Amino acid sequence: MSPQTQTRPDVDTRPEGTDTTGDDTPKMFHYVRKDKIAESAVMGTMVVALCGEVFPVTRSPKPGSPVCPECKRIYEGLPPGAE
């Protein structure tokens, strides 16, 4: 039997930020659907994170950026290929 590659649902592995601090640096980043990131960044539309947070995409995280623990928990619990 050959191994099969499984993928997670169409959720970006690069989270987007909300909850800004006083210097406009996000406190944490959230996981959102890939297809909504560019649209939000260009058009200013709102996105919904896995945790339910609603916000427009304004920043991209850097390596080591803090991630919303609820988004991370939900993302890691998603079955491969589920939508």
Q: Can you walk me through this structure?
A:
This protein is an alpha+beta fold. Helices cover 23% and strands 19% of the residues. The chain has 2 helices and 4 strands; from the N terminus they run ββαββα. The chain has helices at 34-43, 69-77; strands at 16-20, 26-30, 46-48, 54-56. The strands form 2 sheets. A two-stranded antiparallel ribbon has the order 1-2. The protein has a two-stranded antiparallel sheet with strand order 3-4. It is globular, with a radius of gyration of 14 Å.
List keywords for this structure.
4 strands; two-stranded antiparallel ribbon; disordered N terminus; alpha+beta; 83 residues
- Outline the low-pLDDT stretches: 1-9
Biggest sheet details: 2 strands, antiparallel
Distance between the first and last residues' Cα: 26 Å
Order of helices and strands: EEHEEH
Helical segment count:
2
The share of residues in extended strands comes to 15-25%
Instruction: Describe the strand arrangement of the main beta sheet, using strand numbers.
Output: 1-2
Radius of gyration: 14 Å
Average pLDDT, all residues = 76
The dominant shape is globular
Helix content class = 10-25%
The secondary structure category is: alpha+beta
The strand count comes to 4
Helices and strands, with pairings:
Elements: E1 16-20, E2 26-30, H1 34-43, E3 46-48, E4 54-56, H2 69-77
Antiparallel strand pairs: 1-2, 3-4
